[in-house]
Specification:
Helices cover 28% and strands 31% of the residues. With 339 residues, the chain is of the alpha+beta class.
Length: 339
């Protein structure tokens, strides 16, 4: 299904392109994350889709219809910001039902049974059944964001736009709520465009991903494809790969992983090298740090160079010790030649 189609979109501020000739499709029913560092243009892109920023060039279409002449309030999109922006002096139920009341003429805006049923359905959807009479000030940060999400979904928008929805929360809460948000959005079935600078948040919530750098689209595709095949070294590092190697070091690992391959540059996750007494790699331990999940190491690998590595947390390793290691093939990615 078509969903959102962005073609050649450019947005300028004072003559400089904040979004530069971006092409991006968000299929109907999908959850797509636009990922990029601060200043990459991702929030500007979202605001342009919402109709809050005028394009200098290009087009934005939804279900095949050009939105150039469609004002923000008639696009059928719901926009949710970082802080949720709840009304502090209204109950959770009144917050969620706010958009439903706006849809009715002023003389008919009293409480109606169908509004109450819809509010209850949404609170159950976001895991807050029974919270209708609570006040926002009595809720945790994660609960307030779920109320804001329920309010955004109240009028069944054809598209949900999320601007860094979890960035104001602490890391533990952000991780838990990201998993919950993944499930909520799929149960709702609403086409969603999410912008974030947090790679783990994008991986946890979205099924498609677009990476922006300096206003330009670097790569787009399924989360799995983008993660397994980064477009270049910058993208690999931004997505969380620990290091990128080329030259003789990449050739040495290529001989172990796939001797017939022709790639010359390799991105490695921290866990791509693992200690193994029978492994083909010989290395010297430069540093060792114990974490709850694993032992994290820095190794000087013969013929390759300095690389991160991991081992089981119970293993005793000393700095300066010579060890053996192996490559974990599904923890690395070959980068396109010449990038």
């Amino acid at each position: 299904m078509p969903g959102l189609e962005i073609h050649g979109l450019t947005v300028r501020f004072d003559g400089a392109a904040a979004v530069d000739a971006v092409d991006l499709d968000v299929p109907a029913g999908s959850v797509t994350a636009v990922l990029g560092p601060s200043g990459s243009g991702k929030s500007t892109l979202l605001r342009a889709v919402a109709g809050l920023e005028p394009p200098a060039a290009g087009s934005i279409r939804y279900d095949g219809r050009d939105l150039a002449s469609t004002p923000t309030h008639r696009r059928g999109f719901a926009l949710m910001f970082q802080d949720g922006q709840l009304f502090p002096h209204q109950t959770v139920g009144r917050n969620v039902g706010y958009a439903l009341r706006l849809r009715r003429p002023a003389w008919r805006r009293g409480a109606r049974p169908e509004e109450g049923r819809r509010v209850d359905e949404l609170l159950e959807l976001v895991g807050l059944a029974g919270y209708r009479d609570r006040m926002p000030g009595t809720l945790s940060g994660g609960e307030r964001q779920r109320v804001a999400l329920a309010r955004s979904l109240a009028v069944e928008p054809r598209m949900l736009l999320l601007d860094e929805p979890l960035s104001a929360l602490d890391r533990d809460l952000r991780e838990r709520l990201a998993a919950e948000l993944h499930d909520i959005l799929r149960r709702a079935g609403t086409t969603t465009l999410l912008v974030t600078h947090d790679q783990e948040e994008a991986f946890a919530i979205a099924d498609r991903m677009a990476v922006l750098r300096s206003g330009r689209l670097v790569q787009a595709g399924s989360v799995t494809d983008v993660w397994r095949q980064p477009a270049d070294a910058w993208t690999a590092r931004f997505l969380g790969y620990a290091t990128v190697i080329d030259g003789a070091g990449a050739a040495a690992l290529r001989a172990l992983v796939d001797p017939a391959a022709t790639w010359t540059q390799l991105a490695l996750r921290r866990s791509a090298i693992r200690l193994d007494p029978g492994g083909p790699l010989r290395a010297r331990v430069l540093s060792a740090r114990v974490t709850p999940e694993q032992l994290r190491l820095e190794l000087e690998v013969d013929g390759v160079g300095r690389l991160p590595a991991v081992a089981e947390p119970g293993l005793v390793v000393t700095v300066g010790e010579t060890v053996r290691a192996r490559v974990v093939p599904d923890r690395l990615a070959a980068l396109p030649q010449g990038r």
